[in-house]
Write a structure and sequence with these properties.
With 369 residues, the chain is α/β, with parallel strands linked by helices. The protein contains twelve helices and 13 strands. 34% of the residues lie in helices and 19% in strands. Helix 1 packs across helix 2, helix 2 packs antiparallel against helix 4 and helix 10 crosses helix 12.
C-alpha cells in the first residue's frame, strides 16, 4: 500500500489507475507504473509537438519515429530513463522560447486561456511569454491542491503574497486550488508595505503563509512580525532560490517552519514541493520528466550508493502540457535528483536546488558549470 504520508503518490496513483495502469502495492510497483505512464506521455508529447509546434516541427524532423520508439518501449515494459532515448533530442533553451514564443504554440490561440510574461524561473533571465490551455491550468490547480495538504487542512486559513488579479496568474491558480481543498485563502498580492501586510496577516491569522523568499525575509525582520510569529504559521517559499540562511532567518522572525516549492512559469508554475520531512521537494512526476545534465549536456545517472544524482543543471520535459510543450528545457538552475524513497514513504523523486547557475546561458555546446 502507498503510505498515508505519501499524498502526492496517492494522487498520481489515481491517475495511473484511470489510465489503465496498476500502481501495485509497493514502491517498486508504483515506480514501474509511473515510468510506463511517463514513457507513453513522452511519446504523445513528441507527436503533439512535432505535428503542431512550428519550432519543434523545424528542429525535430524525426519526432514521429522517436515517438514510435517510445510507444514500443512502453508496450514492452521498457520505460525510458533520464538520458536514454531522449539523448537524441536537442535541448530547448530559454532564449529560444523568448525569441519566438508563438513558434512553440501547439494549439490555436483561441484554445489558450492564459498567457504569462515572465523573466524565467527565479528572478533573472530573458522575458518570455508562456501560453496555457484550460487543461494546462487545471493541472497546476490539481498539484497545488494536493501539495498544500502537507501544510494545511480543510478549514484552515492560507495567505498568499503573490499576484492573483489576472486569470492564470499564480495567485489565481492557487486560490482556485484552495477553494477546491476547502481551505480559506486570502490573496494579498506582492508586499509593497511590510507594516500594512503584517497588520492584515495578524487580522487574518493564517495557518500557512505563501510568499517569495525576499518578501518573507523582509516581513520576518519587521518589528510587527512578533505578533504573527505567535501563531507559528507554516511558511511556503517559492519562485526563487531559498538559501539555508534565509530559511533560518524567516523561521526565527515568523515563528513557523519553512517549506520550499520549486516551479517555473514555463512548466505551468507548479513543479515540486517539500513534505514535512523537508528533505527535498517531491517532484510533479506525473506531468514533468526531469533530467540533471552536466555542462556538456550529458545526463547524470543516479548513484546506487547515494541514491542521488550529481549536481548539474535541472532540465525539464513536459508530459501533459498542450499549449506549449517543452522538450529538454534547460532551466538554468543548479540541482540534483534524490531517487531513494523519502522517509515519509513517497517513491517520487525529490529535487534539491542550489540556485541559479553563474552567468548567463552561453551558446550551445559551450561549458556552463
Amino acid at each position: 500500500m502507498i503510505p498515508p504520508g505519501a499524498l502526492l503518490d496517492q494522487w498520481i496513483a489515481g491517475r495511473l489507475i484511470a489510465s489503465g495502469l496498476d500502481p501495485g502495492n509497493s514502491a517498486q510497483d508504483f515506480r514501474a507504473a509511473l515510468e510506463a505512464w511517463q514513457t507513453s506521455c513522452l511519446a504523445a508529447t513528441l507527436r503533439h509537438a512535432g505535428e503542431h509546434s512550428l519550432y519543434y516541427r523545424r528542429i525535430l524532423p524525426l519526432a514521429a519515429s522517436l515517438a514510435e520508439d517510445l510507444e514500443s518501449r512502453a508496450a514492452a515494459g521498457r520505460p525510458v530513463a533520464p538520458g536514454g532515448a531522449l539523448a537524441a533530442l536537442p535541448f530547448t533553451w530559454p532564449q529560444d522560447l523568448a525569441a519566438d514564443p508563438e513558434g512553440f504554440l501547439a494549439v490555436s490561440l483561441s484554445e489558450t486561456e492564459g498567457v504569462i510574461t515572465s523573466p524565467s524561473s527565479g528572478s533573472s533571465g530573458e522575458a518570455k511569454r508562456v501560453y496555457s490551455t484550460a487543461e494546462d491550468l487545471q493541472s497546476s490547480v490539481d498539484f497545488f491542491s494536493q501539495g498544500m495538504r502537507f501544510l494545511a487542512e480543510p478549514g484552515d486559513r492560507v495567505a498568499m503574497l503573490m499576484s492573483g488579479e489576472r486569470p492564470g496568474s499564480v495567485g489565481d491558480l492557487f486560490a482556485r486550488a484552495m477553494r477546491r481543498a476547502a481551505i480559506d485563502c486570502l490573496v494579498l498580492g506582492p508586499v509593497l508595505d511590510e507594516e500594512e501586510t503584517l497588520r492584515r496577516l495578524a487580522a487574518f491569522r493564517p495557518h500557512c503563509l505563501v510568499a517569495l523568499p525576499a518578501q518573507a525575509l523582509a516581513l520576518a525582520r519587521h518589528p510587527l512580525a512578533a505578533e504573527l510569529s505567535k501563531r507559528k504559521p507554516a511558511i511556503l517559499l517559492s519562485a526563487d532560490f531559498v538559501s539555508p540562511g534565509l530559511a533560518l532567518a524567516v523561521e526565527k522572525g515568523l515563528g513557523g517552519p519553512v517549506f520550499i516549492h520549486y516551479g517555473m512559469t514555463e512548466t505551468g508554475l507548479a513543479g515540486a514541493v517539500e513534505c514535512p520531512e523537508r528533505r527535498g521537494c517531491h517532484s510533479r512526476e506525473g506531468d514533468l520528466f526531469l533530467e540533471i545534465v552536466d555542462e556538456y549536456g550529458r545526463t547524470h545517472d543516479p548513484d546506487a550508493r547515494s541514491g542521488a544524482t550529481r549536481w548539474g543543471e535541472i532540465t525539464v520535459t513536459t508530459l501533459t502540457r498542450r499549449a506549449m510543450p517543452l522538450l529538454r528545457y534547460r532551466t538554468g538552475d543548479l540541482g540534483r535528483l534524490i531517487t531513494r524513497p523519502c522517509p515519509c514513504g513517497s517513491a517520487l523523486y525529490r529535487l534539491e536546488v542550489q540556485g541559479r547557475l553563474s552567468g548567463t546561458i552561453p551558446p550551445r555546446g559551450k561549458p556552463r558549470i
